[in-house]
Amino acid sequence: MKKLTRPMLYLLLALAACILLSIGVGSIFIPPGQIFRVIGAAIANQPLEGNAEKYRVILLTLRLPRTLLMALTGAALAGSGAAYQGLFRNPLADPYLIGAASGAGLGAVIALTLKWPAGSLGFMAVPLFAFLTALATVFLVYQMAKTGSAIPVTNLILAGVAVSSFATALTSFLMINASGELRRALVWLLGGSTLAGWKPLLAQLPYTLIGLGILLAMAYRLNVLQFGDEQAGQLGVNVARSRAWIVLAATMVTAAAVAFTGIIGFVGLVVPHILRSRTGGDMRRLLPLSLVGGAIFLLAADILARVLMAPQELPVGIITALCGAPFFLLVLRQTKKEMW
Amino acid sequence: MLLRVNLQSAGYPGRNVLSDIRFELPEGRVLALIGPNGCGKTTLIRAISGVLPVMQGELHVNGTDLLSASQAERARLVAVVPQSTHIPPAFLVEDAVLMGRTPFIDWMGRTSNQDLEIARSAMDKTDVAQFAGRYCGDLSAGERQRVTLARALAQDTPVLLMDEPTSHLDLRYQIEFLELTLKLAAEMGKTVMAALHDLNLAARFGDEVLAMKSGQMVMHGETREVLNPRTLESIYGLPVSVFDAPDDNGIVILPK
């Protein structure tokens, strides 16, 4: 096995730079020195004055939670993308393209329409519904795309597009029928984080940590599954059980990300793909690197979303799609060449 | 008997493929499995390696009941070299070979020095050690098939099954691959069952031959005994001639 330390170090350095930039950039610029000062003061529980106090409010109630939420979501989407790609043995499987994200979006909107009382119950219902519908979507796409024991690329994409359009149509229907309150959901669905503060981050954290933990633990199993179900079985792996764990964990991670930050496409496609071409397909390397790479990618996209049309803010999903869709076409062309 | 097969039926839900397959194979022997396309050779290999969903009967290796064994226990007794030479391209050769140790290591894939040593020795024997650090996607079909063999040897099993392992290789690699495999199998005391659709390869490498047709056994016995014109004609539906080979004591089979 190749070493993980060096590429991980580079990525972590890049992540640190992105985090500082993401906290600093906005209508009011906060220089890095001030960021450390404010965080230091917050940890030591010291009072601040003047400009520093203004920075403190912006930083602790707006920028820091948003930055961490974006980093967590990026890690979640890239991690589940790498896992789906391994599971389907297909470089184009991505939470967005195989319909998991739109499925989760539908579930989240259903939960919102049911108008659960705000508060902790509502915060649990949204990700739970998102998880269940995402799971159903992935299952449906998998069943439709499967021919025998293989899943051809075109089948997967076609089934993903069809199921995902259906879920999106249902979502739109629900949103048009409902009024007022759900206009917010539209912005959210496009990947614009409308929820400020620490609540979405803390609500998403447990699902993401548990799901990504399971995926990291399953990394070796995912490696063996790359030989196909039959050979994996002949190598002593319980294929059905391993697949079930991976699908559940990847879908839970996707659903949690969608429930709190909306549908953000292509992160799960672009990041693992670039990393795989540089560091190989060993999931014990690819998965952890994808987590950090995903956080970097989404933070960078979010910074762009905030500065491109400032002071207006674009939904981050637009930026990732603008970079991701051409990339997707490029990958599709390459896979074609390999196939024929 | 090292391998005892007694299958009343085996196949897929709603589609039975094999019926009444009964044979035994002593330790160290090489059994060539022959028969026309679709006769159930691959299904029989799937059955013995434990990846067939429906099976009725008994399968034993060294006295261990394979049907009640776990997937990992089976993989410690039976290794398979599949027909396809596909190996996930983005893996290093050494990592692909090391995956042969899967039934012996924990689910996180942590390997001991002993595992590394066994994999290293399998790579030396199959002559793939020279490209241990290359990606599988950069290898030729013949090289990939040797990597798959190294993986199967690293599994360190008493039984080695091969499903038309040479069908994607050219003439030279076919002979080289089978000679290498059988030399190593003999050295390591393995019992081998290989589905081969080239009858001359079966004649050359099999100690015994099992002839199949439509999911059933037609004949099982010594190579020369089974590879006779009458049996071959009955399973392939084509008249054939069997000649003594000019330079050694083998036989040559030609369609008439």
Largest sheet of chain B: 6 strands, mixed
Mean pLDDT of chain A: 84
- Largest protein-protein interface: A-B, 26 and 32 residues
CATH homologous group name of the domain at 3-82 and 158-255 in chain B: P-loop containing nucleotide triphosphate hydrolases
Q: What is the CATH third-level topology name of the domain at 3-82 and 158-255 in chain B?
A: Rossmann fold
Task: Tell the overall outline of chain B.
Answer: globular
Put simply, the count of helices of chain B is: 9
How far the N terminus sits from the C terminus of chain A, by CA atoms, comes to 31 Å
What is the strand content of chain B?
Answer: 25-35%
Kindly provide the name of the CATH class of the domain at 3-82 and 158-255 in chain B.
Alpha Beta
Structure keywords:
heterodimer, A: 340 residues, mainly alpha, ABC transporter involved in vitamin B12 uptake, BtuC, 0% strand, B: 256 residues, alpha/beta, Rossmann fold, six-stranded mixed sheet, four-stranded antiparallel sheet, 9 helices
Structure commentary:
Chain A has 340 residues and is an all-alpha fold. Chain A contains 14 helices and no strands. Chain A has one domain (68-339): ABC transporter involved in vitamin B12 uptake, BtuC, CATH 1.10.3470.10. Chain A starts with a helix and ends with a helix. The mean pLDDT of chain A is 84. Chain B has 256 residues and is of the alpha/beta class. Chain B has a domain at 3-82 and 158-255: 3-Layer(aba) Sandwich (Rossmann fold), CATH 3.40.50.300. Chain B contains 9 helices and 12 strands. In chain B, helix 4 packs across helix 5. Chain A binds chain B through residues 1-2, 89, 217, 219-221, 223-224, 226-231, 233-238, 276, 280-282, 284, and chain B through 46, 49-51, 70-76, 78-80, 82, 86-92, 95, 99-100, 102-103, 107-109, 135, 155.
